[in-house]
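Quick question, first post here. What does this chain look like in 3D?
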Amino acid sequence: MPGRYKSSSVTLKTIAQAAGLDVSTVSRVLSGSPEEVSRAASPATAAAVRDWAQRLGYRPNPHAKSLRTAQSNLIGVLVPRLSDMVLATIYEGVEDAGARHGLATFVMNTYDRPAEQRARIDLALSRHVDGLILGDAHRDAVVLDEVAARGVPFVLVSRYASKYPSVTCDDYLGGSLVAEHFLDLGHEKVGVVAGEPFASTGVDRSGGFVDTYRKAGVEVLTVNSAFDARGGHEAAEHLLKQNPKLTAIFAVNDFAAIGVLGAVRDAGLHPGKDVAVAGYNDTQLAAELPLPLTSVRSPLHTMGTRALELLVSVLQGQNPSSERLTPELVIRESTYSPN
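> Answer (accepted):
Ran it through. Tokens below.
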């Protein structure tokens, strides 16, 4: 019987006839929520419907479903730069989870500029997205307040701001883990490349680091920078000019840390010997550098997955709580004991 049909000609009615069921029952099983499926059919009947759909090569029509439900099953994702492997990994998690929910996703770059954020949000809304996942939130939440005022469902990922639901790493804890590691090694002349002050990631990571040192009675030199290698290089140069006797520098992401390694070398010092260096996110690059980089591992793929799940719950009318995932310090050759 399956050989009689082309997948494009197989309809819900075809499956209903093959299974000996009403079309409405087949429709609820194949496109309804779990609650609708349980009301429409027994587990055995639902399994039989899915089996017939697979045997007959049934392919749902997403456009027809959109017309019936007034939903596009499309999710827009905004990030500063997808060329950043941290954000790319987060997006992979979003996309994987979206596929499991029958949702298509697309991503756009905003370069952390509010004007670009607004333009990309407008573009996403013109495509009738069901909701947004924003990975470029600024702490002032001005753009987010505008989106909320328009009634657009959204969640935040990687960064948090204001009261809006988010999935992030516990970045304050991550910064504290680096500080505890440096203190255990005996580093008392330390600096931090703190990232951008508008991003919760930079503020929390540097904050956890600085607060832990202050509890130990040690003040920390701090310089803000862009979240890239050039920014890290320039910030480290500034730190080393302020105090040429620094023995350790923490950069709030791995790319900035790579810049720090270069600045240390340019100063005639040996990273990992004269100056310990640690980064954040434990990207794949960290372990493969000529001097493997100590870094805080952030569960990036899981972050993306959970952000999509959080948005699904928002779309279902729920009011989910924000989530903070646990970081882990991965120690490598770039940190050492000055003693």
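The domain at 2-60 is CATH 1.10.260.40 (434 Repressor (Amino-terminal Domain)).
Confidence is low (pLDDT under 50) at residues 1-8, 63-69.
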